[in-house]
Design brief:
Helix content: 55-70%
Distance between the termini: 27 Å
Number of domains: 2
CATH architecture of the largest domain: Orthogonal Bundle
CATH class of the largest domain: Mainly Alpha
Strand order of the largest sheet: 3-5-4
Shape: globular
Radius of gyration: 23 Å
Order of helices and strands: EEHHHHHHHHHHHHEHHEEH
CATH topology of the largest domain: Fic-like fold
Length: 398
């Protein structure tokens, strides 16, 4: 969400305009207010300082380093899954939905989750995986994809209503307490209707354009993120979808071929600066400050993700070497090690389903890898025990 403070600070905005809105509230009667509608994004790079261009260059270099690290992996998607879960947990926390990372890493994505917060986080995992496949198949970003991503994100949650999977047809307000008047909101985005749908269509066209090479993909990703968050096209989930679209934009432009980048932990740790940077684009046209902050976030996030991938790759090699030294050459044992990366906390039943062998054989194999020090029991349970590869988990939780 955006932390806008007062509507009048946008009266002279160079990047948007205020439009009158009105309605009737059964508690407060007839009301009148204003909403902020952003202008279309420029087709050229905004005026940026040398410091900001340097930040963009550093971000590109770190993203290239991340891609190089990912290309070392025999199966890059194998280690994508735990990083996507880290992103899911953090991006949801930014929007006020919190589930412990250990529970996110342990959750079975194929099972219904009774915990509402965990269900929302896993919805993001499924949504992201669908989006990444979409781009990998060479398909273009479309309004239909955006609607589908929203529908997947809110499935089975409180937001799974008649607004799911569609551009909102209701006025929303951001940053006010439940039951508050619209005048108490910190930000009121575009009113619903044809103009909002048209503006979102323009956003899609802008993202799909290469801008004749005039805008660096990192700069374009930052500009697109601002516009999407400001339009606020859905009734819920705009922040999560918007941050997913950052990675998707870098993936579809070829800057990031393996979409393992986790951006939300950095932004979550600086949420006040994050929201303030977005606000200042609308209030003062401060593209320079926002793009510099955004690029620094991508630089730091790419460097952190790259370090984790390199460390995970080293652990993967080490664990498999332990199997070779023990002369444990069964293919299922090596597949179990790989599974410990995909599902960092797991049960014997989950392993059995993944390996496709009997429960007795699976249970014996897990016990064998525990005795070798490859795996360890995660909890003290007697039944439904959970296991982990401790070195893998330590990297993901750090």
């Amino acid at each position: 969400m955006l932390a806008f403070v007062r509507a009048d600070i946008f009266a002279s905005s160079p990047t948007g305009r205020l439009v009158p809105i009105d309605g009737t509230d059964p508690r407060f009667g007839v009301w009148q207010h204003v909403a902020f509608v952003p202008h279309p994004l420029p087709t050229e790079t905004p005026s940026l300082s040398v410091i900001t261009f340097n930040a963009v260059a550093k971000a590109r270099a770190e993203i290239a380093g991340l891609d190089a690290a990912a290309r070392q992996l025999p199966n890059p998607a194998l280690l994508r899954r735990p990083t996507v879960r880290r992103e899911a947990q953090s991006t949801s926390a930014l929007e006020g939905t919190y589930a412990p990372l250990t529970e996110v890493l342990a959750a079975d994505a194929e099972e219904d989750q009774p915990d509402a917060a965990l269900r929302e986080v896993l919805n993001y995992v499924r949504t992201a995986e669908h989006a990444f496949r979409w781009v990998e198949e060479g398909r273009e970003l479309t309004l239909g994809l955006l609607r589908d991503l929203h529908s997947r994100l809110v499935r089975g949650t409180i937001a799974d209503n008649d607004q799911a999977g569609r551009v909102r047809s209701v006025q929303v307000m951001i940053g006010s307490n439940a039951g508050a008047r619209i005048q108490d909101a910190t930000f009121v985005p575009s009113p619903p209707g044809m103009d909002l749908e048209h503006d979102l269509g323009d956003w899609v066209d802008w993202v799909r354009s290469d801008h004749d090479g005039q805008i660096d993909p990192v700069v374009a990703a930052g500009m697109a993120h601002y516009q999407f968050e400001t339009l606020h096209p859905f009734n819920d989930g705009n922040g999560r979808i918007g941050r997913l679209l950052i990675v998707l934009h870098l993936q579809r432009t070829g800057v990031l071929r393996e979409p393992s980048l986790t951006v939300s932990p950095w932004f979550e740790a600086r949420r006040a600066e994050y929201y303030d940077g977005l606000r200042r684009v609308s209030s003062h046209g401060d593209w320079d400050g926002w793009i510099r902050f955004f690029a620094r976030g991508l630089e730091s996030s790419a460097a952190d993700t790259s370090r984790r991938l390199i460390e995970l790759l080293a652990v993967q090699r080490s664990l498999k070497e332990m199997l070779r030294v023990a002369r444990l050459r069964a293919d299922t044992a090596f597949r179990l090690v790989d599974f410990a990366f995909e599902q960092p906390i797991f049960t014997v039943r989950q392993v059995q389903r993944h390996l496709g062998v009997t429960y007795v054989r699976t249970n014996g194999l897990v016990a064998q890898l525990v005795s070798l020090g490859v795996l360890a029991q995660y909890d003290d349970a007697v039944y439904d025990r959970r296991f982990t590869a401790p070195d893998v988990l330590a990297i993901l939780l750090r």
